[in-house]
Amino acid sequence: xxxxxxxxxxxxxxxxxxxxxxxxxxxxxxxxxxxxxxxxxxxxxxxxxxxxxxxxxxxxxxxxxxxxxxxxxxxxxxxxxxxxxxxxxxxxxxxxxxxxxxxxxxxxxxxxxxxxxxxxxxxxxxxxxxxxxxxxxxxxxxxxxxxxxxxxxxxxxxxxxxxxxxxxxxxxxxxxxxxxxxxxxxxxxxxxxxxxxxxxxxxxxxxxxxxxxxxxxxxxxxxxxxxxxxxxxxxxxxxxxxxxxxxxxxxxxxxxxxxxxxxxxxxxxxxxxxxxxxxxxxxxxxxxxxxxxxxxxxxxx
Length: 301
Description:
Helices cover about 80% and strands about 0% of the residues. By secondary structure, the chain is an all-alpha fold. It starts with a helix and ends in a 5-residue tail after the last helix. About 45% of the residues are buried.
């Protein structure tokens, strides 16, 4: 792996997590305005409309590679497109933001375990130490520097849904790596396009069921803007960066970047909502960055 390729992969995964931090803010801010299945369906439908003109020709050119990948494509599409974000948006309806952040940080550990069991890629001891440092930094952020805050946390149905989402995303990440020899011949944008083509129809029945219950989205500019952000940044930009990082860095190392989610969320809250950054933000963020550097340095597995 060249240094340039590794640097591009790290930049891609950081950009992906930054976009998803914004996605989490949108999910929380519009939880009462846009029903979860509606947000998931229109997010991916809009992204598909944007990307489709650019992927039709590459997909036709690589039709034999698509046929060779076969059943693996709908499996990945179901897990990565129809699964994770639909579960996250559902969880946002019934749980607090801090709980989503807390449960979501189980992704690196779940990915470490899945990568070890399914790929035989057990991380080096240094990576486990790095994950430990990052977890401590995360706890500093969540507790706001007061450990008694952790004892007051409570969990509900939304948190159980987030646990399913975490498992879903870990599987998506690991399967991208496991089946990379089938996916590598397909250009990144075309691969994301076929995932969306296969994934959107899987969300449609859930969206139709939601409509039948009387849950509707108001046709107002703010809702359209939320869908536009999730379609362009949380879908196209983030998934392209993430998929590339998994291919170059591996599933376990790429997943460590999820610890930056609360850091980026705090920064976005400061920039967009005027929420001040406290000492615990800086301390926790610094510990997370140190843990990531320790865990992702090149070395023997």
